[in-house]
Automatic annotation (TrEMBL):
This is TetR/AcrR family transcriptional regulator. Pfam families: LuxT_C.
Length: 152
């Protein structure tokens, strides 16, 4: 098999990262698998393993791309507007997939740094608009999210 250049490897890596992002936003984190990425990319799983040693590394493709999409759904003009925009955003597939990933990852014995940082950034963002209330507001939003999604 012919060896590829550093430039080709980087181009492939960027292509695979975009595929990961596309799968995530189209179907959710649970569908970001070696099999699905390989199928879309038209390569073997073993090829992908040369780029991602474990499926945990797929999350790096989302770095810096997810939080802005999440935050753009939110209205920080008042706490009521934030709650209303959050509730409305729950009907937006991308927003729900991001929340699903954050919540699911938060329940793991060792949540990823990206999840911890994402939640911390969300609290800081809310705190920037409502000083001293970020954590409390986010706790309320996450609690309402779970109850809303469960239709309880």
């Amino acid at each position: 098999m012919a060896k590829i250049s550093k430039e080709e490897k980087e181009a492939n890596f960027q292509k695979y990262n975009q595929i990961i992002l596309d799968i995530f936003f189209e179907s959710g984190w649970h569908c970001v698998t070696y099999d699905n990425i390989a199928k879309v990319a038209g390569v073997r799983k073993s090829t992908l393993q040369g780029y991602y040693e474990s499926n945990k590394e797929f999350a790096h493709a989302l770095r810096g791309k997810v939080f802005p999409i999440f935050a753009e759904q939110l209205d920080f003009s008042s706490k009521e507007a934030l709650t209303e925009s959050w509730h409305k955003a729950l009907s937006v597939k991308r927003f729900r997939y991001i929340l699903n990933m954050l919540i699911a990852n938060s329940t793991l014995p060792e949540p990823s740094d990206m999840t911890v940082n994402g939640m911390s950034n969300l609290i800081k963002m809310v705190d920037g608009h409502f000083p001293g209330e970020g954590r409390e507001v986010v706790e309320g939003l996450l609690g309402k999210t779970i109850l809303t999604l469960l239709d309880v």
